[in-house]
Amino acid sequence: QVQLVESGGGLAQPGGSLRLSCASSGFTFSSYAMHWARRAPGKGLEWVTGIYKDGSETLYADSVKGRFTISRDNANKTLYLEMNDLKPEDTGLYYCAKRSYPRNDWAPEFDYWGQGTPVTVAS
């Protein structure tokens, strides 16, 4: 079955960096666009960034543009999120999500999510 397992979260100071990973199994990773989303404490789910199945295009929320970088390793079926210049407002549970259909587009339709990895930005 499809599994997405995030890791790499933790505590970072403002201005610091973290790198999240999302290990996948149970589907052909290279056939699907992948995304990251987050949920801040007491708030709703916020889409963060996405990447085409071949890595040819990426898209970012304005709140993270210029600070976060999404990437993927199709050979190792893993999605990454490099987070730099972290801010307290980046605190939350970070999820990776699989696009529902095997196509390159930005439609917000996801069929599988990981369990999330927590990120806390505080001094």
Which helices and strands, and how do they pair?
Elements lengths: L2 E5 L2 E3 L5 E8 L8 E6 L5 E7 L6 E3 L7 E6 L4 E6 L8 E8 L10 E4 L3 E5 L2
Parallel strand pairs: 2-11
Antiparallel strand pairs: 1-3, 3-8, 4-5, 4-9, 5-6, 7-8, 9-10, 9-11
Keywords:
11 strands; 50% strand; 123 residues; four-stranded antiparallel beta sheet; mainly beta; seven-stranded mixed beta sheet; globular
Quick structural overview:
By secondary structure, this protein is mainly beta.
Task: Describe it.
With 123 residues, this protein is mainly β. Helix content is 0%, strand content 50%. It is built from no helices and 11 strands. The chain has strands at residues 3-7, 10-12, 18-25, 34-39, 45-51, 58-60, 68-73, 78-83, 92-99, 110-113, 117-121. Strands 2, 4, 5, 6, 9, 10 and 11 form a 7-stranded mixed β-sheet that branches. Strands 1-3-8-7 form a 4-stranded antiparallel β-sheet, with no helix packed on it. 29% of the residues are buried. The model has no long low-confidence stretch (mean pLDDT 97).
- Protein structure class: mainly beta
Radius of gyration: 13 Å
Global mean pLDDT: 97
Low-confidence stretches: none
| Large-scale geometry | globular
Characterize the biggest β-sheet. 7 strands, mixed
Helix-strand sequence: EEEEEEEEEEE
Distance between the termini: 40 Å
